[in-house]
Structures are given as C-alpha cells and as structure tokens.
Amino acid sequence: MIAFFLVLAIDFGGTQVKSALVSEDLVLEKSLPTQSSPQTLDKALDVIDHLVTSVEVALSGSAISVPETVDTEGGCDLSRRFVEILSCFRVKETLQAKYHFPVAALNDGKAAALAELATGHLKGVTNGAALVLGSGLGGGIIINGKLFQGSHFQAGELTFLLPLQMEKLDPSLMQGTTLSAIGLITKVNEILASLDLKDGLLAFKAINAKKEAVYPIFETYCRNLAITILNLQTIFDMGTFVLGGGISAQSILIEEVNRQFDKVHHEIDFIGKIIKRPKIVACHHHNGTNLIGAAYFLKQG
User: Fold this and answer.
1) Residue 78: exposed, middle, or buried by beta-carbon count in 10 A (0-12, 13-18, 19+)?
2) 34-57: pLDDT as tens digits
3) How many structural domains does the chain have?
4) Which of 20, 22, 122, 238 fits as disulfide partner to 116, beta carbons 3.0 to 4.6 Å?
5) Has residue 1 been placed in a domain?
6) What are phi and psi of 151, to 5 degrees?
7) pTM for this structure?
8) What is the distance between the alpha carbons of residues 205 and 5, in angstroms, rounded to a whole number?
9) For 112, phi and psi rounded to 5 degrees?
C-alpha cells in the first residue's frame, strides 16, 4: 500500500472529463472544472498534464478511470471503444516516469464497484455489482468481497451484451445502446422539442412530472434495465446491485427500476419463486463514484 495523502483522480467519460482531489479517507476534497472528453491520445495526455500542473498542492499520485479494458498489470490494451484514449498505451509507466509519483488506471465500471465496496453501498456485501449508466453500460463485479476482473480484465463489460433473438447481429441493439443514459435523455428531449438534446435536467423534469408523452419511454428503459439485472442475478446471485452515472442521482430512476424488477421477477411465476431478489440502490457516491474508486485502487497499490 502506498503512502497516501492527496490523489488527483481523473475520469475520462464518453462526453466529459471529471476530476477531483481525493483524500486518504476517500473523500472528494475539491472537484475541478469538467471539460469535453478528448478523442485522441495526445489530447488526453494534454488534459492530464493540464490537471497535474494546475493543482497547487503536493500530490501523492494520480488515479485514472477510463471506458476501456485496462490490463492493470501493464496498461490499456489495443481496444478502441467509445473514445480513442489510452489505447495501445502503458499509462502507468509513462505517467510515473513523467511526474515522479504513483499512477494507477482502471476501467470505469470496475472503479465504480471499488468505490462502493470501500465506502458505499457494497461495503460489507460479499457479492454485488455496480452498473454505470452513461454513454454505454459499464459494470463492475464483486465476488467474495473482491473485485473480479476476469481472465482478460474484461469482466463486467455489459455494454456488449446482445439480445438472443437476432437473425443478424446488430450493434445498435447492444445493451450499451439500449441502456445508454445519454440515449434516454436524447429520446426524451426529441419529443420535448428541446434545443439541447443532451439536457438531462430538462428531460428528468418531464420524467418526474410523468408527462404522458415521455414517461412510457422511461418505463421501457427501466424495464430493460430490470431485465438485465434479473439476468445477471441468475448468473451471479448477488446481494446488491448499485446503479451509478449521473442519472442515478434521480430518485425516480431507482423507484421505477425497482418497480419494473418486481414486475418482471413475477411475470413468470416460478422465476419469482426461485430467483432471490437482490437490493437495487443508487451508488452512494453518485457522479463521483469513478473518481473515488480509481483513488481507492491506487491506495490499494
């Protein structure tokens, strides 16, 4: 375990970069201004450099959360996903050599699960999972009280789940598309004729008001999420699922997902009788979950 005092945590999301200073107690001491997520490696490195050099305190290290498969023993692999950052690049060794402090990188879904395991709603839970609702569907799996990374560091890559009844594979039907929070917000705002299709506050204002034109879209989204949770429950038998991403702060999301889960859980009678119901709650740390989880991963170092 590294000597740990204050870490710069950086989360490269699909649309924006969040960053904050995280204390030894895994508390967000200071959130830094967000910025648009870069689309190239060089620009990503520029963002990191700007953040490191603009912080006016001594850092104990930096922890980075990315929407990529991360080989935590070496660096990111060759995959190219939603953003072309840190691909084919050994982030840990490169940044440690440049800044002379410890660096860790971790997949964003796994970071969310670690944050909740450390100080959130998965603390004390033997088996649980974090589902991160953002540009796609991130995931992190806790088994026997530890983060499960898989044979290729890809456990929990729920974005790539496909429906069973498909004559021809269609990437638009991947769970990362179906359960994209940005996709949901865009659909709602299109119906509202909003000038800003990415305006989440406007979309959820209408959803919270249960406007007839948009609420069925939200119900379908929550039903699809509930079915995904039920399918995962049949595989892993989890105690708790935590939902992360910006929309997890909306209490109506948690309420509707739980309502939809109870419906699908009992639509086939014997499933409801056999498959135990897990808890479904919001991430304790909401939109700061990835930052805290990445910092915790570095602290474990």
Assistant:
1) exposed
2) 988 887 778 888 999 999 999 988
3) 2
4) 122
5) no
6) -70, -25
7) 0.91
8) 40
9) -60, -45
